[in-house]
Amino acid sequence: MTTNKHFNTYKEGLDLEFLREYCMEHGERRTFERGETLEEAGEPAQWVAFVERGCFKYMVHNDEEGKDYCTGFAFEGEFVADFPYCLDGDVSEVSIEADMPCEVHIIKGIDLQRMFDDDIDKMHIGWQIMCNLFKMVYARDLDHYRYTARGRYFKLLDRCPQVVQMLSLKDIASFLNVTPTYLSKLRKEITFGDKR
User: Fold this and answer.
1) 90 torsion bin: left (phi>0), alpha (psi -120 to 50), beta (else)
2) CB half-sphere exposure, 151, CA atoms < 13 A
3) What is the dihedral of CA 117, 137, 99, 105, to 10 degrees?
4) Nearest by Cα to 7 from 195, 184, 175
């Protein structure tokens, strides 16, 4: 279930092989069933995991609406964490749950922080991860102003068509902040004739 293009652009230009190797060699191998949480919003964040199989989704709860929204995903071959909160046990801003059965190699975020503290090169990579995460999230936020919901969906299709086929209609709709009915209508337009 690996993606051809990076859905999560924070990885671009970074060599995170050291972190993958560390997770594989020192991390605990765990299996998560669909719906099982890695982190819970409002609780101390503490984990970093390399996703060997499966997909996780990042969820935030809107108290006023009584509704959960999907804000992101972590796929096979990626890392999943509430970064940087996991580095020092700050309160998690999101719940991270398995979207399907998943296998991970998991380490404590505090261990990653120690790696950053002990090695100036790794500390620089940690800083780059933070910068790239900010750029990725900022661009997604601006896209809500730059594009209509239709435009955001077509942009997602152009960038990562394989992701759209791996995820449920409900999760993609939540990520794009549209209703599943609206997204279903867009998909029908694509299937039965382009009305862009």
Assistant:
1) beta
2) 8
3) -20
4) 175
